[in-house]
Structure formats: C-alpha cells, structure tokens
Amino acid sequence: MNKFIKLEFEKLSSDESLKKSEEFYKLMNKRRTVREFSPEKFDIKILENAIKTAGTAPSGAHKQPWKYVIVESPEIKHKIRVAAEKEEKENYESRFPESWKKDLEPFATDWHKEFLDIAPYLIVVFKVNYEKSDGELKKHYYVNESIGISVGMLLTALHYSGLVTLTHTPNPMKFLQTILERPENETPYLLIPVGYPAEKIEVPLLKRKALEEYYIKL
To answer: How far apart are CA 189 and CA 177, in angstroms?
Structure first.
C-alpha cells in the first residue's frame, strides 16, 4: 500500500501571487549567459543548495534520473578544457554547417574555451538512463524531459543566488564520462561553468521574444 502525506501548501491571495510573479520575472529577466568568468571562489554550499533545488524537480515515475558532478580541481578542469577544445575545434572547422556558424556570429564565440580553466567551478550534468540493482536493470522514464526540467531549476537557483552560468555543450561529450570516471549508465548532458562574471564584462545586445510571440490564450 502506497503511503501518502498531507500536502504542505500555503494559499496566497491573487494580489500576492501576482506581485510574486512580477518580482520573479523581473529577477529572471536579468539572467544572461556569460563566457567570461572571474576566478574568485565562493562557498561551495551555494552550489550544493542549487543542486538540491534541482533535485526537487518532477521526474518520470519519480526516478530522478540525474547526477550532478561539481569539478573544482584545476587539473581536472584543464583536462576537460583540452578535451572540449579538441571537439569544438573540429566542430567549427568541419562539423558545423555554415548556417549554424552564421547564427553563432552575434556571440563572438569560437573553439577556444578559456572559461573552463578560469571559472572556479564546473557543474557537469549526467542523465542516468537506468539503475542496476542486484544485477537487474531498472528502467527510467522520460529521462530527457525530467533532466531538462531539473537543469532549468538549477540555472534558476544559481541566478537567484547571484551567480552567472554558461550552458556549454561541446558535442560529442563522451570525454566527460571518461575524465570523470562515470559509469556506463550515465550519459553527459550538459557542462555548466559557474561563478561571478569577470570585471567590466560585456554581453551581446540581444532581444528576447515578446510574450505574444510564444504565448497563446484560447
């Protein structure tokens, strides 16, 4: 028999909910992806709290198919940079179609990834495709959807905590599994440098879509 507990829920007035939603939007609208980080360190518990927040995400059959690895070691960070730059150099020189490279032009990015050495921490996210227990494989459900939601909550929590991030996908990412010695049931999903922005950093002048461009009311 499954056990249930009483839901902890505080109902807010409509006015309170509206105020909170506006305040939260204003905060999150300031979120920007950065590629230049300060090497300044901070309490790693901030990251751990953000990862705990990510762990509250809904998941298929509550399997929680994610693994978060914090990399602080300069030696391991450099190994990751060398491997990532090897893949990225090939991407820019031969794998990426011209249309993709043209779309990247506004960001002034290339295969050099100094931030992987400079950012004080890297968070490497793995999706856990299945669990092995007593020699038996136990399937996970909606893995991509579940981990996507979890990572979204992680990025939100990090921004709320006053940190900046980059969602880095140096495809293929198999090297992360090798360098970090992760088991075969874990697949690299995302590499996230995190920290404070470098001094006097500038970011591309971008415009987000207006609400009416991605919102439909029926």
So the answer is: 10
Q: Residue 110: which domain range?
A: 34-197
How many CB atoms sit inside 10 A of residue 65's CB? Answer: 26
Residue 17 covered by a domain: no
Signed CA dihedral, 24, 29, 35, 41: sign only: negative
How many domains are there within the chain? 1
CA distance 175 to 74: 17
Q: What is the pLDDT of residues 111-137, one digit of tens each?
A: 999 999 999 999 999 999 999 888 889
pLDDT digits (tens, 9 = 90+) for 42-51: 999 999 999 9
Domain at 55, CATH number: 3.40.109.10
Six token digits for residue 143: 């893995």
Q: Examine the pLDDT at 1 and tell me if it is beyond 70.
A: no
What's the pLDDT score for residue 50? 98
Mean pLDDT score, 186-207: 96
